[in-house]
């Protein structure tokens, strides 16, 4: 089994692209399990459209997401421990189970 920690809010278009992409990856590689990190109000409705992804993933609600135009120093100060990006990275760093 392959485990992937994924910041669903990442990229140019966030959950609207990341969630369908994760679902497609799961179709091609059914042994993948995702730990998904993002804003619940944006991610949960999209996850409902992909029941296989929802069943093989663990969703972790985050308090905030880092904007694409945010300076790295601002992102560190504002997002430490609360942002989806930070939580996804910390999960890998600490070897946290899904």
Structure in words:
With 98 residues, this protein is an alpha/beta fold. It has one domain. The chain contains five helices and three strands. It has helices at residues 15-28, 40-48, 51-55, 72-79, 84-93; strands at 2-7, 32-38, 57-61. Strands 1-2-3 form a three-stranded parallel sheet, sandwiched between helices. Helix 1 (15-28) links the parallel strand 1 (2-7) and strand 2. Helix 1 (15-28) crosses helix 2. It is globular and about 40 Å long. The two termini are 12 Å apart. The model has no long low-confidence stretch (mean pLDDT 89).
Briefly note the structural class of the backbone.
alpha/beta
- What are the low-pLDDT stretches, counting only 5+ consecutive residues below 50? none
Number of strands: 3
Number of helices: 5
What's the main sheet like?
3 strands, parallel
Along the chain, the helix and strand elements come as EHEHHEHH
Strand content: 15-25%
**Average of the residue pLDDT scores:** 89
Separation of the first and last Cα atoms: 12 Å
Overall spatial form: globular
Major β-sheet strand ordering: 1-2-3
Count of spatially separate domains: 1
Give keywords.
98 residues, single chain, three-stranded parallel sheet, 47% helix
């Amino acid at each position: 089994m392959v485990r992937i920690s994924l910041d669903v809010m990442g990229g140019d278009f966030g959950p609207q692209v990341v969630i369908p992409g994760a679902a497609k990856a799961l179709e091609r590689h059914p042994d993948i399990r995702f730990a998904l990190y993002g804003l619940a109000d944006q991610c949960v409705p999209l996850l409902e459209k992909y029941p296989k992804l929802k069943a093989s993933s663990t969703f972790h609600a985050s308090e905030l997401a880092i904007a694409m135009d945010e300076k790295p120093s601002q992102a560190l100060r504002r997002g430490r421990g609360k942002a989806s990006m930070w939580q996804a990275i910390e999960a890998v760093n600490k070897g946290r189970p899904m």
